[in-house]
Specification:
The protein is of the alpha+beta class. The chain is 48% helix and 29% strand. The chain has helices spanning 3-33, 37-70, 90-93, 127-130, 155-165, 203-226; strands at 75-81, 96-103, 109-119, 134-136, 139-142, 147-154, 166-173, 179-187, 190-196. A five-stranded antiparallel beta sheet has the order 5-3-7-8-9. A four-stranded antiparallel beta sheet has the order 1-2-6-4.
Length: 227
């Protein structure tokens, strides 16, 4: 996180938290000045009850999200060279790299496909470039514990460009028809997967989580200065 983003995060979190705390205090002050202390106390209790119900609703939403996450497919990606057994012409198989994707979960994945090849700077390679050196398949349904070929690529293009400088982006649909994505990057010639997951719902819970994070960071910084 850059310094500017960190500063904005701190200002936003502290500002929202102060507003949340200030509301019941302002109500009590107004009740004291207008000599309606009982009504102001009732209003504060109603405000607290609203926050509790709000938090319970967000907890329920998160529980539903966690349940849906348990039904998400998970994958493994392997790289094999010269897949002669998968190509009709053995001469065509020379100098080829085969990407095999395996569904290691207990739920199916649909419409699994390579969507983009990204440079490590985040800029995508033009399809005209990488489609010249590769052939990608669209997998209508990848069942549990099953594997298939996702992509066949020219070995030289893979070794000189993709393995060193690029990230593969793969899209698929889950049981609910929601589009998900994952990215495959290479470290020491081995593929590693990073999943893209939606953020947990909830404004109020996230605010408390951000405040807790700020407290932890403050304590860590104070502890590091003591050494």
């Amino acid at each position: 996180m850059s310094r500017t983003r960190r500063t904005l995060f701190i200002i936003r979190t502290l500002g929202l938290f102060i507003i949340l705390i200030a509301i019941p205090i302002i109500i009590l002050i107004l009740g004291y000045k207008t000599k309606r202390i009982f009504e102001s106390i009732v209003a504060v209790l109603a405000n607290i009850q609203t926050l509790v119900v709000w938090a319970q609703a967000e907890i329920s939403m998160r529980q539903n999200m966690l349940y849906k996450t348990s039904l998400e497919p998970y994958f493994a990606v392997g790289v094999r060279r010269s897949p002669k057994q998968h190509l009709r012409d053995s001469a065509e198989a020379k100098g080829k790299v085969e990407f095999v994707i395996t569904n290691v979960s207990n739920v199916p994945a649909y419409d699994v496909m390579l969507s983009r090849i990204l440079q490590k700077t985040g800029q995508p390679l033009m399809p005209d470039v990488w489609l010249q050196f590769s052939k990608s398949n669209i997998i209508p349904c990848l069942g549990p514990k099953s594997s298939t070929t996702l992509l066949v690529m020219d070995a030289k293009f893979f070794d000189e460009i993709v393995k060193k400088k690029c990230i593969l982006e793969i899209h698929y649909q889950n049981l609910y028809g929601e589009i998900r994505s994952l990215r495959v990057f290479f470290h020491e010639s081995k593929p590693h997967i990073v999943y893209s997951r939606p953020e947990m719902p909830g404004f109020l819970l996230r605010l408390f989580e951000d405040m807790r994070l700020l407290v932890v960071l403050y304590r860590m910084r104070k502890l590091m200065k003591s050494y």
